[in-house]
Hints:
The structure is a single chain. By secondary structure, the chain is α/β, with parallel strands linked by helices. It has 2 domains: 3-208, Rossmann fold (3-Layer(aba) Sandwich); 220-332, Rossmann fold (3-Layer(aba) Sandwich). The chain is 27% helix and 21% strand. It is built from 9 helices and 14 strands. It has an 8-stranded mixed sheet with strand order 2-1-3-4-5-6-9-10. α5 (232-239) packs parallel to α6.
Amino acid sequence: MKTDSLPLIAVLATGGTIAGRAGDAASTAGYKAGVVGVNDLLDAVPALGNVARIHAEQIASIDSKDMSHALWTTLAKRIDELAAQGDISGIVVTHGTDTLEETAYMLHLTVKTAKPVVLTAAMRPSSALSADGPLNLLNAVTVAACERAKGQGVLVAFNNQIHTARDVTKTSTYAVDAFRSPETGALGFVQDGRVEFQRAVTKPHTLASEFAIVDEWPMVEIVASYAGASRVAVDALVAAGVKGIVVAGTGNGSVHASITQALVDAVKAGVAVVRASRVGSGHVMRNGAASDDALGSVSAGTLNPYKARVLLMLALAAGVNDARGVQRVFDMY
């Protein structure tokens, strides 16, 4: 195969475990994340030369637990710039696993391209025995180079599975199959160069999304409900000028009585409140007069608290701040 006939894929590196290194090859903990550069990551996967031509950029070199809004803005803008180039067929982002699902969903709602944008990562550092990063990177580039991946929004390629950014979440602290889509299952799979999509993304994203990347992110925080909870955290956030609060509630997004009154007061102060659940799967039903109408709150549906925060920030930044409008956004996206 002539290399000049292969698609051109941009690989944007941000750090993470996939770019991590430890002193002991038998160790998968105690490593330094983000220390391996993008060119070294690519050199470790010579099979990429059979899949695509690569344009590589080092966007950041961080542990993804330290992901920032400023870096989100930088990353999304760079993806839009690259996607606008006629010679670029798709984009891959290497990322840490800790906040990958948040970054992926943010990009899913803000980047403006039908070209494939695929995030990948690793659970083991590059120095580890049986490191999973090289195969995940090869599979991500394979998906990004696939014509059938166009128009699917932002995807996550991990452990031979392909997930939509909206539904995927990290479900294990150590396993190489750490990413799952609990309610919907994977979109498809990628293995040995074969890309198979078994379902399609149905909710609006990318070009169909009403949201765009922002330079100034509204302050939205998460509080949890649990046995013996108090209103201290909610009151402190309101005093600090928070614009929105996502509650990681128990069960179906239920909220402790002590927090409930604080949230009522927060809504009266102009703070948007969204009820999500701390449970790992399922959905939060809008409870009407029993809860949401009385609180002035919004149901997060199937979004976990961290993705609900992303969507609420974008809604507020777009000027959607009344409960009815925010509920429309959560029902749609």
